[in-house]
Design a protein that fits this description.
- The protein is mainly alpha-helical and about 110 residues long.
- It has 5 helices and no strands.
- It starts with a helix and ends with a helix.
- About 5% of the residues are buried.
Length: about 110
């Protein structure tokens, strides 16, 4: 859901912009869609490259991961990937809500 929902919401925003004739909404949604597609593609590429080399270092990586989870807290860089998509969504929806003057939604956002 986390990877599919942003793409669906941006597609819905483009369709809504076309239906209402809002050029700024269409352009803004397409801009965020391109950024999100680039980010998602980068994550997919990184995941696929790690899978191709998995057979050589699986035991070592699993031992290192177990040690890190036991003795180390997660740093900012390891949490960064899971925070980018919600940040992009909140920013995009904040801009859309501000454009339409929906201040109560903007405050909730």
């Amino acid at each position: 859901v986390q990877t599919c929902l942003p793409h669906c919401m941006l597609f819905a925003a483009v369709v809504y912009g076309i239906a209402k004739g809002e050029f700024a909404l269409i352009v803004g949604s397409l801009f965020w869609a391109v950024l999100l597609a680039c980010y998602s593609g980068g994550r997919l590429t990184a995941r696929m490259s790690s899978l191709t080399h998995e057979h050589t270092t699986t035991k070592r990586l699993l031992a290192l991961q177990a040690w890190g989870e036991t003795y180390c807290a997660l740093d900012f860089n390891s949490q960064f990937a899971s925070r980018v998509v919600p940040f992009l969504n909140l920013t995009a929806f904040g801009i859309i809500f501000a454009m339409y003057g929906w201040w109560s939604y903007l405050i909730a956002c």
